[in-house]
Known about the structure:
By secondary structure, the chain is α/β, with parallel strands linked by helices. It folds into two domains: 2-198 and 388-403, Rossmann fold (3-Layer(aba) Sandwich), CATH 3.40.50; 215-385, Rossmann fold (3-Layer(aba) Sandwich), CATH 3.40.50.2000. The protein contains 16 helices and twelve strands. Helix 6 (121-136) packs parallel to helix 7, helix 9 packs parallel to helix 10 and helix 9 packs across helix 14 (360-370). It is globular and about 65 Å long.
Amino acid sequence: MISIYGHSGxxxxxxxxxxxxxxxxxEKHNQSINQSINLYSYSPSxxxxxxxxxxxxxxxxxxxxxxxxxxxxxxxxxxxxxxxRHKNDPWFMKRYLLNNFFTNINGVYLLEAGDQYCENxxxxxxxxxxxxxxxxxxxxxxxxxxxxxxxxxxxxxxxEDIKRYSLIIARESITYDALIDAGIKxxxxxxxxxxxxxxxxxxxxxxxxxxxxxxxxxNLGFLAQGNEKYYxxxxxxxxxxxxxxxxxxxxxxxxxxxxxxxxxGSDYCTLKKVYDIFEKDYSERIQIxxxxxxxxxxxxxxxxxxxxxLRTHVAIPSIASQVPTLVTGYKQKSEGIVKDIFPENFKxxxxxxxxxxxxxxxxxxxxxxxxxxxxxxxxxxxxxxxxEKTKMIKELVLNLExxx
Length: 404
């Protein structure tokens, strides 16, 4: 049996894309696995809304207790009694919510890692607790598609936690090299994120995609993990870029949302701020696209002439579709994926942490425009082989599953 955990929900369509990619990777092997993949989700209702239940079994990660039921009262008293004893372990009080998840541990558990180890220390400890608890109950854990900053690997407790995984798969070489340097040299591999495999699903395009007009897709939104201080300069760069596009090209601009947790935790909030600046003078050439599922979003991106994106999981389907893409996201995951795919002289990375002026995006975009044929030729020759490397994940996990 193969299960995916650490999945916060399709409010971030990158999470959705990883699950679809994993399920497509193993699709032809479900008979050997003996059943479809289980997805333990923090937001099962949202995942079903975006139809992940069509590719896997969507199950709740946390157990819900009816208020004032006997079980609810019992766990409330337990938390009260042991509160002081476990005050340094904030996740202890929530472990009773995992009773369903731990009931029948069996097979291989893929942590949908991404950059979750770059979150706060409390959450890293929770991931460590899950890793330990699964292995103690006879399951095997896989740290799949991870990005981990080097400074985090200075923590000895984190190193011991990572070594406990039966298999470690870094999604870019900066993390892979950092793990090796930190002394993690067993059961560690480098392979592209499974989201590169996700197939596009045809859907109705937003009206900005007119028959005769070419479109630049732009994604941006809130920043996290200590990068919030770069937000204003990122927005300024985007505004200046759109001004340049409007004045110097005939391209339309599609503002593409990707993350939609809440009003403040939604790309829509920033996209609306940018759209409002241009609505009066350029309403026929700029539009905020409607939210779509991850595979439909990939279809939209495949119809763009260029993509400029903050989110890594907008860059992934865009690059997989061989659309020239300017990656502007958080340093390591953006830098690592670009480094592994493109030559050093390709100016396709404008990391928000490296911005110096509000014209930096323009300079990179102009380079892409001038070198479009070069970029497309390079992508056509190299992207299929890069994506093919994901097959390593399937082989490694199936071998682990057979040994269980």
